[in-house]
Amino acid sequence: MPVQTFDHTATGYSVRQAYWMAEAARLAYQPPDVIEQTAREWGFDRVRHHETTFRPPFPLEDTQAFTAASDHMVLTAFRGTEPRKIQDWLSDASTPPWPGPAGKGFVHYGFAEALQSIHPQVHDAVAEFRDNDQTIWFTGHSLGGALAALAAMRLYFEDPRLLADGVYTFGQPRVCDRALAQAHDEAFRDRTHRFVNNNDIVTQVPPEPAFHHTRTLRYIDSSGQLRDRMPLLGGLADRAKGLTADALAPTSDGVRDHFVNRYVEALRALSHQEA
């Protein structure tokens, strides 16, 4: 049976919820009028747009997100950016790490600055819209995934009343050091779901050991199946299979696997299997 719309009463992890979170992450790339119309079709009766500018190591950028609410659910989705821009930010090693929320560890400077520019808007919207003890959700793709993960950490560590019920990220780069990743895992590891599509290159930057991912992984392998983890040898073999899937352009696989549509399509198929 096709999956029709959000389940506003959901409380835990499911592939269906992952699919709709990927749809919301994709929607964040759209103009405000499209976001509002679609969100209302999904059952959200309140929508607020967030947009600010900030200056990473390169030219002025903007951060965009939207928060939507119903009687049962508050959802914030952050817009992503193209892999080239993320690589530009990450190539600047002259800026020190940014202190993590509530003094826990450190965050990559570029991601922290992007979130800092929009965090007050997001915090106020979530706090205002959560007027019926609704569940709280964050999602995003690419840069949007980094911001979703960090926003959930910052809201909880700085205001424990705002613990996210679910954080779904797609093609998310590493955002923080080991100390903050461990603090996250101790506080709400089971609520965060980081999806990686096979050879997605953005999920492999910035490099370890300075930066780390949080622990929970949802890996979409080269055949479109979902795995909770990937053993080292099996993972290398599966990545190699993905690299050779396009004989005419094998080196493009890491960028192609990063596209938000790839995540949406894979999770749509998986959600139909689950249904």
Automatic annotation (TrEMBL):
Fungal lipase-type domain ranges (all copies): 77-208
Annotated GO biological process: lipid metabolic process
Cross-referenced PANTHER family: ALPHA/BETA-HYDROLASES SUPERFAMILY PROTEIN (PTHR45856), FUNGAL LIPASE-LIKE DOMAIN-CONTAINING PROTEIN (PTHR45856:SF11)
Protein name: Lipase (Class 3)
Native species: Saccharothrix australiensis
